[in-house]
Amino acid sequence: MTLKNQFKIKELEIATGVPRSTIHHYVNQGLLHRPLKTSHTMAYYDDTHIKRLEAIQKVKLEYLKRTKSTRIPLDYIKHKLSETYSLVKPPDDAPQASPDNADPKRQQKKEAIIEATLQLYAHRGYYLTNIRDIVRAVGITSPTFYRYFKDKRELFVETIEYVVRKYTKEIKEAMKNEKDPTQRSKIMFKIFYAHYPMMGEILNQLRSGVIIGDPWSCERLSRLYREMMGNLIRELQGGMRNGIIRKIDPVLMAYFNLAVNEAAIHLTSMDKSYSIDVAMSFAGEILNNAFLTDKGNKEFNVFYKSSGQD
Predict the structure, then answer these.
(1) Whole-angstrom distance, CA of residue 183 vs CA of residue 173
(2) What is the pLDDT of residues 165-197, one digit of tens each?
(3) Nearest CA to 197 among 111, 265, 133?
(4) Which one of 153, 161, 237, 270 is least enclosed by Cβ atoms within 10 Å?
(5) Dihedral over alpha carbons 154, 155, 158, 163 (to 10 degrees)
(6) From CA 146, how far away is CA 98, in angstroms rounded?
(7) Burial of 254: CB neighbours in 10 Å, binned 0-12, 13-18, 19+
(8) Rg (CA), the chain
(9) Within 10 A of 119 (CB to CB), how many other CB atoms are there?
(10) Beta strands 43-46 and 6-7, pairing class
(11) Could you tell me the strand order of the sheet in which 43-46 lies?
């Protein structure tokens, strides 16, 4: 039998920092699923046990931050795990078919739930947003919520799809009649900036999954990036064809541009002495000097002078 990515109890202790007595206690109490037993005295744990223990530790840490108690009820941990468990996808979690969206009223209610969830994500983050908060914000009951979403994870998945659809549609509409490349670039950033408070938490959660090696999070994040940056990549390719931008890898440049935009947003959120306009003007100057051709620099300088932004 192959025991790839499987650990003995001592190795699990080292990997997670959780004592074996606590691990055994979690297994006996149903907080942690049972290991694979190969004999009466030998058992093996795997990556899913590590991820589950990390989720338990996160719940415990959040509880200790909010209370002065040093004792955390097991029932509380069970409740929080069932409601705000890790986004990591279990191996046997097959993709669910999307429900029929033919009913406009049903779709409208689902979107209301998603919009309320995004607002909560922006202010509290994924792990501190629970279903009770969501139903209270929408003005519905918990049974009503479960008519639309199986659980919090399914809601998160549909929220990703909703954000991408709305974001790409808004960019497409805003740039429909705009031909100037500089203005198109500004439009894309303004829309990204407007959506980032809600989009940022989704990106952060998927990135966390990627860091711990979750394939589902990696696939979702890669797909989200591709859909988010599709317009930007096409703009860059057009600029290269027109001789405005140097011939470079448009995908790498798009990712670099995203990193710069996020850094500017984070800075202005933390330090109010910088405005988003100041931060983006600085970033734009760096990007222009690095990637624009002489022709591109001339066109951008003409635009800035004519618009009074020199």
Answers:
(1) 14
(2) 888 889 889 988 888 777 888 888 888 888 888
(3) 265
(4) 270
(5) -150
(6) 15
(7) buried
(8) 24
(9) 15
(10) antiparallel
(11) 6-7, 43-46, 36-37
